[in-house]
Design goal:
globular; alpha/beta; kinase; transferase; ATP-binding; about 25% strand
Amino acid sequence: MSILVFGSLNIDHVYQVEHLVRPGETLPSTKYSRFQGGKGANQSVALARAGADVFHAGRIGPEGLWLRDAIAAEGVNVTHVGLDNQPTGHAIIQVDPAGENSILLYGGANLTVTSDDAHYVLSHFGEGDWLLLQNEISSMPAILREASERGMTVAFNPAPMTPEVLSFPLEGVSLFVVNQTEGAALADTEDASPETVVEALQARFPNAGILLTLGGDGSLYARGEERIRTPAHSVDVVDTTAAGDTFIGYFLAELLAGESVQKSLALASRAAALCVTRPGAADSIPRRDEIEDSSS
């Protein structure tokens, strides 16, 4: 069973700072690094490192060819990564000593995906295939509609959560993966408590599974009457940048391999815990053998 990630490819410019910059403040950085990133690319790498059969679709500019080569080296099929004359998308990321981050995104080539691109890519997939989406590329409504029409199983991580998401054709989504802030916005509720968010999302999307990520409090999965809570692992946090992407990739890879939701969540939690002990985005995503070694 294959999974297509239709999503962003970014160059991450990461700055270590004493604290996240406040409005009007000029703050020196103690260290600068460049990493491959973008939520789409990160999730593709996580899926590949977890052992899934992954295809990535998206667009890059001329200076982003190394991003395509980097995910291809992980075993990701990059046939549908196109080259554009716009700059490659990038992110400016601040990371403080506690590992918390603040991210400024520039969409660049990620925002040149057209409905024709969506039709061409999705014509190579169909019923039985999975599609994983985020919200860092253009033509999302067209992608969602066509994937649903083709009978694909759609997982949607609406990050960054923007007002436009509420108007997307979301009735074909099979699994929503959200944090509390994203979940409350998607459910249109001011109460961001886990149970309230889950119940509100289930009321709006009764046929979908809901996976609510809770940071240090773990995660909550819900489908129908089923509830599965998974605790987070206690580790020394260095950088949380790709923790959510790692969690999603490992969770879906295990599901596609036929494992139960509970086992999939447990592995995803271990993977995310190992991820936050390292700096960077895609570079911090652990490989499967590392997770197995850490649990033995």
